[in-house]
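In this notebook, the sequence line spells out the residues, with the fold written below as integer tokens. This is how one looks.
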Amino acid sequence: MDSLPFVSECEFNENFQAPDISCPFHLRQKCLYLCRNKKTLVFDSRILLNILVYNWSGFMNTKKITIMEKLGTLKITLFSLVFLMSGSLFAQQPSLQFYRPNNKTGLNVFESPKEDTVAYEGLKVRVGGDFAMQFQALTQSNTQGNLVDLGTDFNLPSANLNLDVQLLDGVRMHLTTYLSSRHHNEAWIKGGHMQIDKLNFITPGFLENVMEYASIRIGLDEFNYGDAHFRRSDNARTIHNPFVGNYIMDAFSTEAYGELTLQTGALLAVVGLTNGKLNQNVRLNPNSDNKPSFYGKLGFDEQLNSDLRVRLTGSWYMNNGTSTGTYLYGGDRAGSRYYFVLHTAPDETGATQGNDFEGRFNPRFQKLTALQINPFIKFYGLEFFGIFERAMGGNEVQGGTEGAFTQIAGELLYRFGMNEEFYVGGRYNTVTGTQLQDAEPEMEISRFNLGAGWFLSKNIITKVEYVQQKYNGDAWTGRFAGAEFNGVVVEAAISF
């Protein structure tokens, strides 16, 4: 402060009014002062915002200021903006109630915890993000020999913007924006929800004996069917996925929903309702039936001792409509992690086949009932996660009644290091079934992953995997007949 005596003389006051905008020295020295005093970041950020506003609205329009002074002030403005952004990133993020951290600390956290460990101190805003980039070296082939040649290069980076806000005691909001994804290069809202863990806004202590165990979620976002969605890559948020790709039948959708979760001791239960629509639309047509989707979960999750944790859950999803409920395995609009696999080269007419979601499988049943069972065991550094899933159709379609598919997956990891910052592991995933009941032969897809990863910090991860996926059996036709892709993918990601 002694080296910057002007600070006490500057025209900033308790209301954060603007400084003398005709004095670029004031602005320049103020920025230097801010750089030397990062501990007062909140105060400094507000000053910087004032500098930005007044630079553009006042100073840059002042005719008395020379071109060189304006250029100098432009540099100060850009510096202030960079400082504001970088300072915000490195500042201590506020702690939120009943919140799953978006970093390594959130590994193996499933439902939001019910421990009331964060005191309510008024409105808090947590701005976070996710960034991911892959280096892909895959090859592919099929019986027809018409798949595109894949090179060795980088994929388009992806990014998320996350906004979490503590609105009231026990009430917070979450919003995710996909800034860039494979399927949509432009920014768009993935979804958002409000979570209620206390009802004190009705009256202090209202139903507190119930809300000690209950959480309510309302919004348009991913809903809690199965446990696999807690470990999947969500566009750029890949820090909780030990591998690059998600499962072949990727149970994930964003729909308008309401959900009640109960957690007491080692037991948990979830019950929820969605409108069954990925794309919201109030218009009706002759085929609209607007049947809702019902889903739920029952489970056991216990830290048996300091070294052993056991979790087992069973989930269900049901929709009897023909115009809703068809998006459970096709609700991710970000795109597949393995770029341009199973895309065909142009034929003699110039036509091609393939989309941004290849490598996954969606049964596309119109009347869907799905069951998913998930065991999870962690013993010291050894970790196992599994999936047994059955997706069954029930609608009468041309050729008969919809069939069923079974997904089985097992993932075995070993985490090691001082803070388990390293891991190695493998995953095996199969999907078998038929589109119609009693159809022969069965369709089969198998995938094998072998990978390793390193958490450089709790916010930074790099991972490498070998992947091989095959389309087996005589049921596959066209470009899928005898199709296979394999190779190595490297991914680096940041989440905060």
